[in-house]
Design goal:
By secondary structure, the chain is of the alpha+beta class. Helices cover 24% and strands 33% of the residues. The chain has one helix and five strands; from the N terminus they run βββαββ.
């Protein structure tokens, strides 16, 4: 019996992210920021429910804690993270 090969899932490197939230969904916009003129190219959007966003946040938090336990603290020197008043949107780059 032959089995069909699954297509490989595309992989993306990102160094920029924006998060937009409404009462109904959360959008994670990812991309690459760099030369020339520090332009940002959006390479993907993940749209999810607030419940899934909370699960994803918890999974990422645990993964980072495990990585730091093995390799040491991740320093965020030079990184930007801000959310405008109201906190409905944030950006990391």
């Amino acid at each position: 019996m032959e089995t069909a090969e699954k297509p490989e899932t595309p992989r993306q490197y990102i160094n920029h992210a924006n998060i937009y939230a409404t009462p109904f969904d959360v959008v994670l916009e990812v991309g690459v920021k760099g030369p020339p003129r520090d332009e940002t190219k959006t390479t993907g959007l993940l749209v999810m429910s607030p419940q899934m966003a909370k699960v994803l946040a918890q999974l990422l938090s645990v993964s980072v804690q495990q990585w730091e336990a093995k390799h040491g603290e991740i320093k965020l020197t030079g990184q930007l993270m801000h959310a405008p008043s109201g906190g409905a949107q944030g950006q990391i780059s």
